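My main concern about presentation is that the manuscript never shows what a single data entry looks like. For the editor and my fellow referees, an illustration may be useful. For illustration, here is how one protein appears when written out as sequence plus structure tokens:

***
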Amino acid sequence: MRRYDVIVIGCGPGGERAAIQAARAGKQVAVIERQHVLGGTRVNWGTIPSKTLRESALFVHSLTRNKLDGIRCEIRDEITVHDFMYRERQVVQRELELINESLERYRIEVFVGQARFIDPHTVAVCGPDGGVLTSLAADFIVIATGSSPNRPPDVPFDGESVFDSNTILGLPRMPKTMVVLGAGVIGVEFSSMFAVLGIEVTLVDTRDRLLPYLDREVVAILEREMGRLGINLLHNDRHVAIERLPGDPPRVHCTLRQGGVLEADALLYCVGRDGNTKGIGLELLGLEPNEYGLLTVNENYQTAVPHIYAVGDVIGYPALASTSMEQGRQAMRHAFKIKGLPSKTETLPFAIYSIPEVSYIGETEESLREKGVEYVVGRGDYDMNPRGQIIGDTGGMLKLLFEAGSLRLLGAHMIGSGASELIHIAQAFLRAGATATQIAETIYNYPTLSDLYRHAALKAVLAAHRLDPAPGSGRK
């Protein structure tokens, strides 16, 4: 029996940061990882691999969108997913090296195997056959086991024509047509990437509104741009039958609830993810995950067993790498009473790496109306920005929400090139309690997309003083 101050189960972004936070405070830390590589979905199957494909898709998009007289670029007809993913292994390998270096620097011990609770303070590390390799005990335990794609039994996943989000980048060939079932973040991202690569994509949304938690004005722009990419978006529908069709290559036949029939070279199923909580012995602790395998935690990320914390995808929304990291840090700050700036993960920036990308932080118009807060809206449009014109992106927008009386910034919503980077300017302004006047009087490099903040803030100031003659200026 080996004793530690904390055991972290899972070494994705949440588990890794929890382990490092505790180790930096001088605590003895052990990490149990069931895979033979660290980094979780973020590094190995999800975030980094998919963004590598997106970067290739953006390159293709720039070739087709920004044509220059006298310059001709061609892409050969036969190109594989492997061709588009040429940098993925380099990036993944470098990330894995950095993770291992960090764990070694802080003397964090890593055990490879399946974790299983023996009692509330003891965790067994089990081998592939279920046999116990070793047992670890600790005062605190962090569950950071992540999530996996939902794989219902009526979907014939085969890695040839039917895929989930973990296997889609292993496409054996580049399809000409694709059906994407599920229009959450993953579905929207992959749909736009594959559409840009010239694939005919049909995206089926189980809900009547695309990404309902996003600003509706931003969603309208996103739907417009997805339509320009050739994506056929179907709302409020779902599959009732999926059949693999024989052939070389094989195809897939999908029947929808509303009677539609889709046939394509490939189908990506990405309706939901389930928490990885099976087989780790939670029943011994009296912890019962919900129907999606997710654990419930309090504001300090404690489960119903106070010395056991849970962070990251295994606790559900927002299930982002950035928020998972912060949750891991906060859990250990609470456990070991480590001083640090309080930071609620619901006010961290969010990004959707669609094409164009979407990012936001803070309040939405809907949330402000629910709270009865009067607000003023200021908008900055890419087509009125010189840098937007230069890069050929004229469809984007920055939308800032300010409290009507004080003009203090409450939220920011953005769609367009660089949105996931530019939103951090709003994050800084939010933390500083900046007003529309202060944002408008801040000096920005010219020409830059950052200058959108000045334009949006100026419009809000004018709207607040009822000086903006444009209809729908945003005064609420």
Notes: The longest helix spans residues 47-65.
